[in-house]
Task: inverse folding
C-alpha cells in the first residue's frame, strides 16, 4: 500500500504538475472546459484544493495550462511518422488527428470554442498550435516534396494551407457528431486530397 | 429644428429599435463587441440609457440583438444578384462579403469570436446565419445548376460546402489584416473556384 503513495511523493513538482495536467486533459475529454473545476481535479487526483492552487494559481491559469497541454498533446500525437511517402505521412497524421477528436470530442469542441472565443490568452495558445501544425506540413514536405505537387512555399500558399486546416477542423468536429453516411476512410482521403488542391490553387502573390 | 425631432418621434417603437440596432452595428465596425456598451449607444443616439434599457433589456440582450442584426445584414448584403450566370452570381456575392468584412473588420472579427466562443446564444445566432448562407448556395444553384458542376445535393456535399464557407471566413479575415501580396480579384477567383472543388470532392455517403 505504501508503494504507489511513495512513488507519487517521489515525483518532483514539475513532473507532478505534468501528471495533474494529463489528468485534467483526460477529464476534459467528456466535459466542457467550464465544467473542469479545481475541485473536480482535486477530487479525482485525491489531493487537496490548496495543493492544486499551489500548482496552478487560479481557475483561469489552470484552464490555460490544460489548453496548452491539450494543444501540445495534439501536436505530439499527429507528428509525422517515418514513412518515405508524403501521402502516407499525411494520411497517418490526419487519421491520428481524427482519432484524437473522436476520443476527446466534447473536450475538443470546448477547447476550440475557448480558442476561438474572446479570451486572448486562449486564442494565442491555440493559434500558436495551429501555426505549428501547418508549419510542420511545410517542414515535413520540404521543398522537394512540395515540388512534386507543383507547389512553391509562398505566404499565399501558407494562407491556403492554414485555411485548409481550419476546414479540416470544422469537417472533423461535425463528422464526429454526425457522420451523414460518410465512411471514415473516405473522409480522410477527401481531406488529404483537399490539402494538395488548396496549396495548388493559392492565388499568385506579388 | 423641430423637424428632425418630430421625424424621430414619429417612428414606431419597432422602427426606432431597428434604427438603434443599425447604429449599434455601425459602432461595432470599429470596435470590439466588448467595447459596445449601452452607454456608448445612448451617447451616440442622443437618448437616455433608461430608454435603451427599455428597448434592449440588458447588455447581453443588446449584444445578442446587434449580432442578430449584423448576421441579417450580412445575409442581405450578399444576396445573389439577378444574373443568369451562376459563376457571376457567386463572384458578386463573395465580393460583397469581402467588402462587408473590409468595412467592418474589427467588429466582424469580434462577431466571429463571439459566435465561436462559449456563449451558446451567440453561437446559435451565427450558426443559423452560416446555415442560411450555405443553404442559399444550394437554393440559388438549383438541381440543374449543381448538375453543370457534376454535383448532386447530398448531406456530404452540404458538409463540404459548409466547410468551404468556414475556410472563406478564415482566409478573408486573415487577408484583410494582411494581404501577403495577394490581389483582391485573385483572392475572389481562388475562393470561388474552391467552392466547386469542395463540392465535387465530397466523399460518398451511404
Result:
Amino acid at each position: 500500500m505504501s508503494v504507489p503513495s511513495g512513488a507519487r511523493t517521489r515525483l518532483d513538482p514539475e513532473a507532478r504538475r505534468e501528471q495533474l495536467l494529463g489528468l485534467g486533459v483526460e477529464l476534459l475529454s467528456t466535459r466542457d472546459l467550464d465544467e473542469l473545476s479545481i475541485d473536480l481535479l482535486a477530487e479525482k487526483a485525491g489531493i487537496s484544493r490548496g495543493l492544486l492552487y499551489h500548482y496552478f494559481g487560479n481557475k483561469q491559469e489552470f484552464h490555460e495550462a490544460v489548453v496548452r497541454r491539450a494543444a501540445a498533446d495534439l501536436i505530439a500525437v499527429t507528428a509525422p511518422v517515418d514513412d518515405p511517402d508524403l501521402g502516407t505521412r499525411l494520411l497517418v497524421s490526419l487519421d491520428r488527428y481524427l482519432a484524437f477528436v473522436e476520443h476527446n470530442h466534447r473536450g475538443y469542441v470546448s477547447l476550440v470554442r475557448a480558442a476561438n472565443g474572446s479570451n486572448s490568452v486562449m486564442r494565442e495558445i491555440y493559434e500558436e498550435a495551429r501555426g505549428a501544425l501547418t508549419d510542420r506540413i511545410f517542414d515535413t514536405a520540404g521543398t522537394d516534396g512540395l515540388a512534386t505537387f507543383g507547389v512553391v512555399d509562398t505566404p499565399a500558399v501558407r494562407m491556403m494551407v492554414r485555411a485548409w486546416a481550419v476546414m479540416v477542423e470544422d469537417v472533423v468536429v461535425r463528422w464526429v457528431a454526425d457522420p451523414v453516411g460518410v465512411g471514415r476512410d473516405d473522409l480522410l482521403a477527401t481531406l488529404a486530397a483537399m490539402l494538395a488542391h488548396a496549396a495548388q490553387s493559392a492565388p499568385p502573390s506579388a
Q: What stands out?
A: Chain B has ten helices and no strands. Chain B touches chain A at residues 33-34, 110, 112-114, 116-118, 123, 154-156, 158-160, 162-164, 166-167, 170-171, 174-175, 180-183, 186-187, 189-190, 193-194, 197-198, 201-206 (CB under 8 Å). The CA atoms of residues 142 and 153 of chain B lie 9 Å apart.
